[in-house]
């Protein structure tokens, strides 16, 4: 009796210890989530706390320990740390961790705690967790009499299934090993639409040669182009059997990774029964097995020998393992293949999912899957009303994956302009446009979860797969509405850009050879150009350096313009160097003005560069010429005024009694022309030379309406200048259009351009260059400054030297 009381007391004490430990685990998890959540809020609000461990260089372990709060702040700072360039930390989107996500995180913490229990209690608890989770999943996904294998890598389940099939088909494999495979080489079949690298991973893990992998093409005539060709598969199986090989396993898709299509699982099941193949199914569409109404194509997956599920991704559960459900009668072979865990601790992988499934319940799981499929149907219905957008789905009524793309044919049918012949590589251009479209939508509506996929037949498409992303990102119907709104804003810009590409090419060829059009089909925009000045007598290295310098400066000036057009170097898009890439444009953009401005700015950069290179020689020759003219002027002055007027005191008295009208005129040093000019014209007209031409020449800013951006047509009734004016007229007005509204964009002008009245920025540039050379030491500056201050028609007093 005393022994029983002691046992009860010990049990009660142990229970109290367990309760307190579990409570502490929950408190620590809540504290960790709070600190990490507060840190995320700080980044959103722009505030920051103390920065722990900001350096990225590993250091020694500190002698004194740190508390939990400090360590959690350290983890937070490592997640949202400054980059190597010292820029401010950016806000990284975290997974939408709901209450069920907290249960999954709690499961990971409890798994670590449960692993320290005594062996017998651990065995009972893990067996219960594993059996419960297996039963719930089999019932939820209609997979009767199945077993479950939990694994972190979603490919490991298939690897273990292959080991099981090899052990079952090769009786002596357990004792002889790989030697028995030489008699009959095993063959694994997969669809061409399977996820890349899956079969190669199998061969690597199993030690099989790549010749054991057979890729079956998809349909080319009948059926979906993303479904496996069943007739061709049967032909390949027969050929392999006749060649003495052993058809081992077939990998089928219930939702291909790219388009979300499902193979003909019913026919594949019959074919596998006929030739004794193991049928393994995977794909996102397997989640719809939990719904009340399931299509016959998906229902056929319940007859497969094994299937891989990713419930953590579908339900938004962080760090939850993938699950492979399988049917096999020999538990020894399952244990040998690794499908059945041999250690109780390995069974704890199911604990996070066990807790989350109980928290959600059967109805909660089904509701999440139904919500994801309803989002797909909502987007599909909305896209039908969007022009220039082409959709691609497997089933109009129940497809959980929606593909859409910007279509050239639909754009031509809905847009007034024509896109025929706009580019030699039409498919590449459309792929680039759709890639840009997907990136823009993902940036504008990040909670939508759209991404870009590359398909063999359709090309580049935008994919919306809410079964994979909705639970993680918390996608709602409002996000789908917002996605459609943003799409309708972006599509007109893509239409107008597509229609103006040919015009942009023709306008660029008009400025050849100085302005060259670059064929770069991977750029999502109007096109790419490069300014190439004449390089006579210049070696290749020097020519490349000049090209880089000129186009870099030209890009900088274009980016400073007051316009909505984006100019980029586009280094990540093409192989051509030193190019300027012009982005998307609206339909009211004047392409002729745009190209003329690019050419004019490039020409001015080249001419100003040449001017700066020759400035040293120009200044030297100008000083020598000025000294000769000053010497000649002094001699004439001496002859004209006489010797007495040169004496300091006598000259002043004579000049007071009898003033002399000097005939010597002032000089101005024109750096742009490289010559000395008389100041007589300047003082007679009271203005700088060329001032009248600057006032008379109209600029584009004077013609621009209030609020009108650069390169924008004045109204809807005005046509493009390229359509109404000849090439000669466009050339005459090129520099007129190139004068922007901002002073920072006014380019320097060349000496030769001073003779042209349309070059309106010549005097401004010349004055700037002259101002930069005010420190040139010579006697010219003092002499000429004295003479320039002399008003015309008045007497001047001069002191003798």
From TrEMBL:
<keyword id="KW-0456">Lyase</keyword>
<feature type="compositionally biased region" description="Polar residues">
    <location>
        <begin position="715"/>
        <end position="728"/>
    </location>
</feature>
<dbReference type="InterPro" id="IPR055103">
    <property type="entry name" value="PDXDC1-like_2nd"/>
</dbReference>
<keyword id="KW-0663">Pyridoxal phosphate</keyword>
<dbReference type="Pfam" id="PF00282">
    <property type="entry name" value="Pyridoxal_deC"/>
</dbReference>
<dbReference type="InterPro" id="IPR050477">
    <property type="entry name" value="GrpII_AminoAcid_Decarb"/>
</dbReference>
<dbReference type="GO" id="GO:0030170">
    <property type="term" value="F:pyridoxal phosphate binding"/>
</dbReference>
<feature type="compositionally biased region" description="Polar residues">
    <location>
        <begin position="687"/>
        <end position="703"/>
    </location>
</feature>
<dbReference type="InterPro" id="IPR055102">
    <property type="entry name" value="PDXDC1-like_3rd"/>
</dbReference>
<feature type="domain" description="PDXDC1-like third">
    <location>
        <begin position="507"/>
        <end position="609"/>
    </location>
</feature>
<dbReference type="GO" id="GO:0016831">
    <property type="term" value="F:carboxy-lyase activity"/>
</dbReference>
<feature type="compositionally biased region" description="Polar residues">
    <location>
        <begin position="741"/>
        <end position="778"/>
    </location>
</feature>
<comment type="similarity">
    <text>Belongs to the group II decarboxylase family.</text>
</comment>
<dbReference type="Pfam" id="PF22930">
    <property type="entry name" value="PDXDC1-like_cen"/>
</dbReference>
<dbReference type="Pfam" id="PF22937">
    <property type="entry name" value="PDXDC1-like_cen2"/>
</dbReference>
<keyword id="KW-0210">Decarboxylase</keyword>
<protein>
    <recommendedName>
        <fullName>Pyridoxal-dependent decarboxylase domain-containing protein 1</fullName>
    </recommendedName>
</protein>
<dbReference type="GO" id="GO:0019752">
    <property type="term" value="P:carboxylic acid metabolic process"/>
</dbReference>
<feature type="compositionally biased region" description="Basic and acidic residues">
    <location>
        <begin position="784"/>
        <end position="795"/>
    </location>
</feature>
<feature type="region of interest" description="Disordered">
    <location>
        <begin position="687"/>
        <end position="801"/>
    </location>
</feature>
<dbReference type="InterPro" id="IPR002129">
    <property type="entry name" value="PyrdxlP-dep_de-COase"/>
</dbReference>
<feature type="domain" description="PDXDC1/PDXD2 second">
    <location>
        <begin position="400"/>
        <end position="498"/>
    </location>
</feature>
<dbReference type="InterPro" id="IPR015421">
    <property type="entry name" value="PyrdxlP-dep_Trfase_major"/>
</dbReference>
<dbReference type="InterPro" id="IPR015424">
    <property type="entry name" value="PyrdxlP-dep_Trfase"/>
</dbReference>
